[in-house]
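Me: Here is a favour to ask of a fellow structure person. Could you put it straight underneath, so I can go through it closely?

Assistant:
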Amino acid sequence: MRTPKLRTSLAALLALSAVAVAAPSDIDRTVKPGDDFYRFANNIWLKTNSIPAGRASYDTSSGLRDETARRVRELIQDADANTAPNPDPTLQSLRQKIGDYYASQMDGAAIEAKGLAPLSGEIAVIAAIKDHDALSAYLGSTIGLDDGSDTQPDAIFGVWIHQGFHDPSRYLPHIVQGGLGLDRDTYLDPAPDKAAARETYRAHIAVLLKLAGLADPDARAARVLDLEIAIAKAHASDADTADIVKTDNAWHRGDFDAKAPGLNWRAYFKAAGLDAANDFVVWQPAAVTGTAALVASTPLDTWKDYLAVHRIAHYASVLPAAYGDAAAPDRTPQAIAATNAALGEAVGRLYVARYFPPESKAAASVMVENIRAAYRARIPKLTWMSPETKEKALAKLAALKIGLGYPDSWTDYSDLAILRGDAFGNLKRVETFALQRGLAKLGGPVDPGEWTNLLPQIVGAVIYFTPNTEQFSAGLFQPPYFDPTGDAASNYGSAGAGLAHEISHSFDELGNIYDAQGNLGMWWPADDLARYRAADAPLAAQLDADCPQPGLCVSGKRALSESVADLAGIETAHDAYIMSLKGHPDVVKNGLTGEQRFFLAFAQRWRRLQTPDNLRQQIATDIHPPGEYRADNVRNVDVWYKAFGVKPGDKLYLDPKARVHVW
């Protein structure tokens, strides 16, 4: 997991590396499990696999993502060919839209033939802007609907329709900074490579202006770049955007006029469809104030050139190749990605219908509820939590909404027109459709079951602290990660440990920032926090001693939060596994006891091949330690010692008093 950079959510795709049944064929019995459990469990796999060309790492999750991508491509291309029409009229209607959208994206000849004509009307509107009031209105009409991800909108501001920090009952508009063609630091960093990137970007701006038929494109491009540099100077840094306290800024409608003069906010909000809104959350106030001032201080012609460039760049994927960075020899990957992005839930419904049957969701639901029950039993026994904090933790656990596989309610695309042969119009209508759906939620009650930036056909998960929800995609619940009819011990050791890991974040130092309803506010007292940090400090010391090479060691401080979650995941998933047996002993399979299969599945979920540079980069920047050290967390779990006969003198052996038990 990671600290949210742009959202109240804590969202991350899981780097899952898992097997549905602990694979005895991968075990290297020349290695003592108590000396190196990771290589005991994975050595054969590590020796018989290699990193594919063009990649810096490879793990079993890479194969799962590759297979899921192949399935998505097949679903979209089948929809285009309309092979084997679906007997369900709703699914068949979705297939038609998917096929038509994809076919339009693939028709490069038609896109080339139309040239810039599809955008000519908007270019003319920009050219006709006569004053700053008209400029304000046009800027509002381009507001970007944000989806809660870290992707910055290319409009000067984006709007994310989501629960407020202090009001769990209704949706509010969250205003976020945008409007840049490069990342903020590239504009501001004086380093030679950043300066070169700015010059390359300036040259690209000039090309777009020339293609749009504007005179003196080089001088215009220089002025547009200067404007973007000024916008970047007003923007908040990544660090400030990741600081949830600094993004907690409640503004009323009148505050924009007082705090951010220069933009005609009445005209802006009316054009954006936000004129009825009175309460806002402003993520980066300095960006709003600074950009609004630039609307007034920057010459109108520079803004018009800026807007022409950004409108062309925004629609570059459905304009001739000359308007993009380069012409791709094969449009297929781009067309698949564009279709999946535009009609994600439509593709998701087809994916679920083919690959995620009800029995898979039922099996996953049983696992999740056993994990919830295991936490319900563990929390009262925690030594670092006060009784009052335990009550709040249990209330948050009870209120936690966990979505599995796909949304409870699918997006209704029936009013969305998709026309074969109209790639530009399709994209524009999709964006308008999404924006109108988002705006329609404003002021309404929050739906904790809503899925915003996670699709069923993605191998991933997302946590939203506001509201108090977690969602796990259908792409996770498949072999080799999860087998609904497979071995329970392996499922709980692999998928179960991953699920329990994520759930633990609702109650750790990250989750402590939000209460059971998703309101921002710490609910641990200082004494609890001090006891928590005392409990996890020994784990940081363990991590500091994990050194794959001389002079290259894991940072216990950086990797601590995720490692605590790993430990919580394996211990709680083990409890849930025992619950699933309902008092009966597990059977021996392939010469392995249930306990052994559980821990082997946990170790095998972290197996990974990576280049030396990739390993160094991971240790320097990633909050997750390398896979072998995630697997070695078993040394803190008492049951593991008994399962594999680990004794004093073994390299991983820890005295019982030295074993870390946070959760």
About this structure: The radius of gyration is 27 Å. Residues 1-20 have pLDDT under 50 and may be disordered.
